[in-house]
Amino acid sequence: MPIDSIWSYAPDLSDVQERDLTGYTVVANDGTIGHVDRQADHHGMRHLVVDTGVWVFGRSVLVPVGVVEGIDTGERRIAVSCSRAEVKGAPRFRTDSETMDPAYLGRVGDYYHRLPPRETPTG
C-alpha cells in the first residue's frame, strides 16, 4: 500500500467519504476499539480520532482512514484491518493539536503503513 493511501478511504468506500461517522463503533479484527469521537482531514491526512473508553485507560487513538475495511451505516460500525494491539501500539495521541501537526501525522501514517498486510481468506 503506498503511504499516501493510508490517508484515503479505499475506492469501494467512496460513498461514505463525506458521511459524519461520529459515534460509530470501531472494530478491529479481534474486538472493539471504541467509538469515533471526531474525524479530521488536516494536510490531506484524513483520519478518525477514536475514544477507546476504558480499554486503553480512557485515552483516544488516531486511526488513518486507509485502514478502514468496511462501514456498516445501518449498524453504525467501522471495521479496520488491524488488531487492537496494533492500534494500541501506534504513536501515542495526547492533544488535539497533534491532529494538525504534519510531523506527528507522518509518524502515525508510517506506523500503520508498516503493519504487516492482512491475508485474505481463500475459498
Automatic annotation (TrEMBL):
<dbReference type="GO" id="GO:0030077">
    <property type="term" value="C:plasma membrane light-harvesting complex"/>
</dbReference>
<protein>
    <recommendedName>
        <fullName>PRC-barrel domain containing protein</fullName>
    </recommendedName>
</protein>
<dbReference type="InterPro" id="IPR011033">
    <property type="entry name" value="PRC_barrel-like_sf"/>
</dbReference>
<dbReference type="InterPro" id="IPR014747">
    <property type="entry name" value="Bac_photo_RC_H_C"/>
</dbReference>
<dbReference type="GO" id="GO:0019684">
    <property type="term" value="P:photosynthesis, light reaction"/>
</dbReference>
